[in-house]
Structures are given as structure tokens and as C-alpha cells.
Amino acid sequence: LRLLPQQRYLRAERAEVSALERKRNVLCCLITRILKVEKQLHIDNLVFRVIDACQKGELGPGLQFLSFCCHSVDVLSCVLHLLNQGYLRRREGRPHVLEY
């Protein structure tokens, strides 16, 4: 019986999944931090602020991380995730305004 070494593409795939999870965690933290300060914000303004923070590499006052490419789809996906988890909610009568 001869054992084959683990395929390299499997290790690369795991690394990509890990990187995506870290990116999602950073985006969720940014969204939460911004909404904690603002209390409520139009979803478009939230997306622009998160993208701007990603490009500048700013997590918040005194905290920084390496800047990375962030798209509106990434941010909206995280917003939906946080809505489903109950961390965010939509404002009554104005569903495009998010509240923390």
C-alpha cells in the first residue's frame, strides 16, 4: 500500500477559506464599531464608510490593520449576516436605515 502526499491545492483552498473568514470578521467588526458610534445609519453611508476604512487601514480610534480590498458586495453580505444574527436591525418604517 502506497500513501500519496496531501494535494497542494487542498492546502491552498484551506488558506483561502481562512483568509475569507478573517476578512469577514474584520468587516463585521467595522460595521459594528461604526454603528455603535452612529447608532443608526443609512445602509449606503455604512457601505461607503466601511470601504473607506478598509482602504485606509483603520479599524477605529487607536487601532489599525493592514488595508485590503473590500467591495460593496462584501460589506452587504456581512450586513445581512449581522442582521440574521440579531446584532443589527432595520428601522421601523425605513428599512434602508440600520440600527445597532
UniProtKB/TrEMBL annotation:
Matching SMART domains: Cullin_Nedd8 (SM00884)
UniProt domain Cullin neddylation: residue ranges: 19-96
Signal peptide: none
Domain of life: Eukaryota
Transmembrane region(s): none
Species per Swiss-Prot/TrEMBL record: Nyctibius bracteatus
Gene designation: Cul9_0
Official protein name in the record: CUL9 protein
PANTHER family named in the record: CULLIN 7-RELATED, CULLIN AND GALACTOSE-BINDING DOMAIN-CONTAINING
InterPro entries noted in UniProt: Cullin, Cullin_neddylation_domain, WH-like_DNA-bd_sf, WH_DNA-bd_sf
